[in-house]
Specification:
Helix content is about 30%, strand content about 25%. By secondary structure, the protein is an alpha/beta fold. It has two domains: about 140 residues, FAD/NAD(P)-binding domain (3-Layer(bba) Sandwich), CATH 3.50.50; about 200 residues, FAD/NAD(P)-binding domain (3-Layer(bba) Sandwich), CATH 3.50.50. Strands 5-2-1-9-21-20 form a six-stranded mixed sheet, with helices on one face. A four-stranded parallel sheet has the order 13-12-11-17. β15 and β16 form a beta hairpin. α1 packs parallel to α7. The chain is globular and about 75 Å long.
Amino acid sequence: MTDRKKVVIVGGGFGGLWAAQALANKPVDVTLVDRKNHHVFQPLLYQVATAVLSPGEIAQPIRRILHSAKNIEVILGEVVGFDLMNNSALLEDGSEVGFDYLIVAAGARHAYFGHDDWEVSAPGLKTIEDAVEIRSRVLLAFEMAERDAYLKGAYDPLNFIVVGGGPTGVELAGAIADIATQALANDFKAIDTRKARVILFEGSDRVLGTFTPDLSESAKSQLESLGVEVRLNSYVDDIAPGRVKVGGEWIHCDVVLWATGVAASSLGKQLGVETDKAGRVFVEPDLSLPGHPNIFVIGDMASIKQANGEPVPGVSPAAMQMGTTTAKNILAELKGKPRNEFEYVNKGSMATIGRKKAIADVFGLKLKGFVAWVFWLVLHVFFLIGFRNRFLVLTDWFWAYMTRERSARLITGDAEELREAIKFLKAKPASEVVSTSSRQPKSINSNR
C-alpha cells in the first residue's frame, strides 16, 4: 500500500477553491490554507461597497463549502514563505506545512504604481473589508453634507472621483450615481443628493478597453446617461485627503476610489523564480513552476499566454479553469498519465453599469443595455456559492429594482472611528483646491 500524496493549496479564492473542489474525495490528502475563513464572490464586491448587498450575501465560509470533502482540511493562517528544498510552506507563526504538491493561488491586490501612500486617501476594492470601508466613506459624504447644511446653512457640492475605467471603476461610478439620484434622493431634507458629481478618470482613450470599441463606446454613453462625467486620456498625478491632482490641477473631492492597477501577491517572489512587473510568476504551459514540477502557480499570480499570444486575463473564469486543470494534472500524474497544458477557454466578458445598463460579449454575441443587464444578473446568481446566498441576493435585487432602495446602508465603526472619518472627509486644503472648470458643478441627471 502506497502513502497518499499530500497537496497543499495556498488561498481560498476562485483558483484555490476550484482546485480543492476538483480534488475533493480523491485519493490525495489536501490542506487548504487561507488567512480568511471565507471565500468572497469578488464580482459582486462593488454591490457591498454601494450598499446593495450585505457582506454575508456574497461570502461563504470555506470550511462549509468543503465540508463534504473528507480528504480536505482547512487551516486558518497566513503563508509567508516556502522551503522548496524540504517541500514545506511556512506560516506566519513559524509553523510549517509539508507537501508533495503545492498550489499557490494567493491572488492579487490593487497597485498604486509606486505611490502606496495614496491608499489611505483612495481605497481599492479587493476584499470585504475594502467594500465596507468604501460604503462607509460614500455614505458619510452625504451625511456630512446634510450636517453642514443643517448646522451651518450651507454645504459644499459633493464630488466623487473614481480612478480607472475598467470593470470595477465603471461599476462603482455607475452605482454611486444611482445612489445619489435614486436611492438617497428622498431621504435627505437639507441637501439635494441629485446634485452630487461623479467623475471617472481613465488613462486610455476608452473605458473597458478589453471590450470591442463599439461596446466600450456604449458603456461610456450609458455612464454619461447616468450623469457620470467620463474623462479619458486623464492620468492622476497625486492624491491627498480631499483632493486629486489631474493634469497639474487639484480637484476637490469628498471620496476618491482606486480602481486601476493590480499587483500579484508578494508570495510569488518568495518562490525564487522570475516574475513580471506586476509580480506574476512566469509558469510552464502546465502551470507548474520552472524547475519544480510539483509546484503550481495559478490565478492572478500566474503569467502565461494563450495560443494567440495574448496573456491569460486576470479574471475569475481563468482562475477557475486553472484550478481545475491543475487538480486534474495532479490526479493524472498519480495514475501514471501525462499532464495536459493549460488552455484558457474565453466564454466572454460582461460589465454592469447601472440599473438596466450593461454590456456583454458572450458566445460571439454583443449585447447592450437591458438585455446585457439581465444576462449579467442571471450568470452572477448562477455562479454564487450556496442556495441561501442566491436567494438573498435575488431578494435584495428584486427589492432594489422595485423600490430603488438600498438594503445595506450602514456606516459601521465605533464613535472614535467615525470622528476620524469625519476629519478625513473635511481635510480639504482650500488654498490648493481649484474647480475642474469655470462652470458650475454638473448635477447628475435623474432618471425617475
